[in-house]
Structure formats: structure tokens, C-alpha cells
Amino acid sequence: MAQAAGIFDVSDHDIRQRIGEPLGPMLAALFGVSGSSLATMIADYSAEYVSLAATMERPFDGVFTLLSHLKSRGIKLAIATGKSQSGAIRATTRMGLVPYFDSIHGILPGTPGKPDPAVLHRALEALGVSARDAIMVGDTTFDLDLSAALGVRNVAVSWGVHSVAALTARNPTFLATDLGQLSAWLDTVATTS
Questions:
Q1: Which of 23, 80, 130, 174 is the most buried (most CB within 10 A)?
Q2: Helix (H, G, I), strand (E, B), or coil: what is residue 156?
Q3: What pLDDT was estimated at residue 192?
Q4: Helices 23-31 and 35-56 sit at what angle, rounded to 10 degrees?
């Protein structure tokens, strides 16, 4: 998007640190744009993302096995993502994830994105679960910040874009380096509904 707009380049590292943040603040901070330039960049990015996601976005290996296991235990599952609500529904439907989740939450128009905990608060309400009885699994510092803001235990997973050092600096309840570790930890702490 920066090249198309003729704006300076930023490093992959800088981009990775902002993944999980809403597009407006992320692109404004990365490229120093505002107003109509920012609106154009958001629209262009969104169109390109939708086009590429149809063939490139996919679940991590082993996710369906883990989700099936959790569902078989009667554990309530929700998604609280920084994607728009329509983007969240589109992505989970395309990847075959919808049957595993009781509730799917993205950012609604006019509501704040991560790290504001609004999306997680909506997910908790939809599930009828208190913050103390919930666990948030996330791969960004934004996930850890929003769960901490509500007093929700959190698990950092190391296979996302934020570094292990950045994740551990947020003092997650647990750090998983693979799905096996995540599954084993969840089995020890998760309660059935």
C-alpha cells in the first residue's frame, strides 16, 4: 500500500509490531497519513486483503483437532478478533471454523478496536461467561493487553507475528510454543460449561 501511495517504506519489523491493531491507527502510525489519504489507503488495503485472503488465509495445522477436542469437553468457544465483524464472519466461514465456535466477534462500526477490550467484553457477554472464568488465547500484545484489562487469564502463542520477548513482557498466564502445549495447558485449567 505504501508503494502504491508513493510513501516511504517501513520495515517488516515495524509492520509486525502493529498487526492486530485497527487499520486506521496502524496505517496512520506506520505511514504518517491522515484524512483522505488514510481513507484511500484503508480502502485499498481492505480490497487487496479480501482478494488475497480467499486463497492465502488458512488455519494453522492442528487447529481443527484442538477445537474438536475442546468442543467435545463442552467448553464454550468464541472469537474476539481485530477484524471487522463482516471480515471475521467471512474468514471463519471460508476456513470452516464456524461450527467450532459458539460466538464470533469482530469490530463493529463506531466501536474501538484492540487493545480496547470492547470486542472481548462482547464475546464474554454472548457466552454468558465472567472474566474470571474465561481464558483468552492470543498471538499479539494487543490480545494480551485487552484480556488483562478485563482480568481474563491469557495465553500467548508464539507462532504469530509478535516476538516471544514482546509477548512475555506482557506477563501472560501461560506461553505456548506449539498447539500440543496449548492443548495440554487448557486441559489442566479449562472447566466445562
A1: 80
A2: strand
A3: 47
A4: 110
In this structure, the answer to whether residues 69 and 52 fall within a common structural domain is no
C-alpha cell at 175: 506461553
Contacting residues for 85 by C-beta, under 8 A, at least 6 apart: 105, 106, 107, 108
How far apart (Å, rounded) are the C-alpha atoms in residues 140 and 81?
11
Grid coordinates standing for 122?
Answer: 462482547
pTM: 0.85
Q: Do 109 and 83 meet the contact criterion of CB atoms below 8 Å apart?
A: no
Angle, helices 118-127 vs 141-150, to 10°: value is 60
Domain final residue pick, 35, 56, 77: 56
Q: CA-CA distance, 44 to 31, in Å (whole number)?
A: 14
Q: How many domains does the chain have?
A: 2
Q: Say whether both 142 and 72 belong to one domain.
A: yes
Q: List the grid coordinates of 36.
A: 483522505
